[in-house]
């Protein structure tokens, strides 16, 4: 099943609108659930992904589906850019992110705004680095999303995608299925008022392309030197690509 056909809610609205409403709904519990679902390992995944980037200067960075700005803040600290622009569909997620940016004293570097990844409000070849953490499986049209990332990336720039994935190990997978299909939805229902959101999560992970299938999609969008690295028994994958 294609992740583009997996929707947060069972209605006729476009996926982008449903995703926006879902993240608006779960914004108050989002950071807690991120830490709880991953046992805090999501922080390490972001750190590893940044470490996988080429040792070069990234003055202007775009973080798509920035959410509450965890990756944007990390890049501002680690990569010493001139600016990091974070965009997201959900204004309530961005509001939480802005508070975190202020707490980190990064308001001169990190700027967050509401935007649709399918129609980014930036000129061609604006950014040296484009990132997206745990967001591409929510795209309404994944190839179109990658083409937008390609459009706004400068030649010589880098793309970094962090996405949840399904372990292929026959030993790990039964435990993973138990955790994602039963424990996470139960925890989500206890913490969030949105009963559907944390059922949608494992469904979208199961349907998103991963590994070579994902890098092939990036290549179709125009990216080169596409590589991937599974992390933590394959429950997360980091993808790195470039633009000639």
Strand order of the largest sheet: 3-2-1-4-5-7-6
Instruction: Tell me the β content.
Output: 15-25%
> DSSP helix count?
9
List low-pLDDT spans.
none
The overall pLDDT average reads 93
Helices and strands, in order, run as: HHHEHEHEEHEHHHEE
The separation of the N and C termini measures: 32 Å
Rg estimate, integer Å: 17 Å
Helix content: 40-55%
Structure classification: alpha/beta
Number of strands: 7
The largest pleated sheet is described as:
7 strands, mixed
Q: Which shape, going by the Cα principal axes? A: globular
Report on this model:
The protein is α/β, with parallel strands linked by helices and 244 residues long. The chain is built from 9 helices and 7 strands, in the order αααβαβαββαβαααββ. It is globular. The mean pLDDT is 93.
Give a brief outline of the structure.
The protein has helices at residues 15-26, 30-38, 41-51, 70-78, 91-103, 142-152, 173-191, 197-207, 212-221, and strands spanning 60-64, 83-88, 110-114, 127-133, 153-164, 224-231, 236-242.
Task: Write the topology of this structure.
Blueprint: H1 15-26, H2 30-38, H3 41-51, E1 60-64, H4 70-78, E2 83-88, H5 91-103, E3 110-114, E4 127-133, H6 142-152, E5 153-164, H7 173-191, H8 197-207, H9 212-221, E6 224-231, E7 236-242
Parallel strand pairs: 1-2, 1-4, 2-3, 4-5
Antiparallel strand pairs: 5-7, 6-7
What key phrases describe this protein's structure?
globular, single chain, alpha/beta, 9 helices, 43% helix, 244 residues
């Amino acid at each position: 099943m294609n992740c583009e056909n997996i929707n947060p809610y069972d209605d006729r609205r476009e996926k982008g609108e449903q995703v926006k409403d879902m993240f608006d709904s779960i914004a108050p519990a989002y950071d807690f659930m991120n830490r709880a679902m991953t046992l805090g390992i999501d922080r390490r995944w972001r750190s590893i992904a940044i470490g996988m980037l080429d040792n070069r200067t990234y003055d202007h960075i775009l973080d798509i589906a920035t959410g509450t700005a965890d990756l944007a803040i990390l890049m501002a600290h680690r990569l010493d850019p001139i600016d990091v622009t974070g965009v997201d569909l959900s204004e309530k997620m961005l509001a939480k992110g802005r508070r975190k940016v202020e707490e980190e004293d990064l308001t001169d570097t990190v700027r967050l705004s509401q935007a649709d990844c399918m129609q980014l409000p930036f000129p061609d070849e604006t950014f040296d680095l484009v990132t997206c953490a745990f967001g591409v499986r929510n795209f309404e049209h994944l190839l179109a999303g990658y083409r937008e990332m390609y459009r706004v990336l400068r030649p010589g720039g880098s793309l970094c995608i962090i996405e949840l994935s399904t372990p292929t190990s026959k030993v790990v997978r039964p435990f993973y299925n138990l955790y994602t299909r039963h424990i996470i939805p139960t925890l989500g229902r206890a913490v969030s008022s949105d009963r559907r959101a944390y059922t949608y999560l494992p469904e979208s992970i199961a349907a998103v392309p991963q590994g070579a299938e994902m890098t092939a999609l990036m290549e179709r969008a125009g990216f080169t030197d596409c590589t991937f690295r599974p992390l933590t028994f394959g429950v997360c994958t980091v993808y790195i690509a470039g633009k000639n």
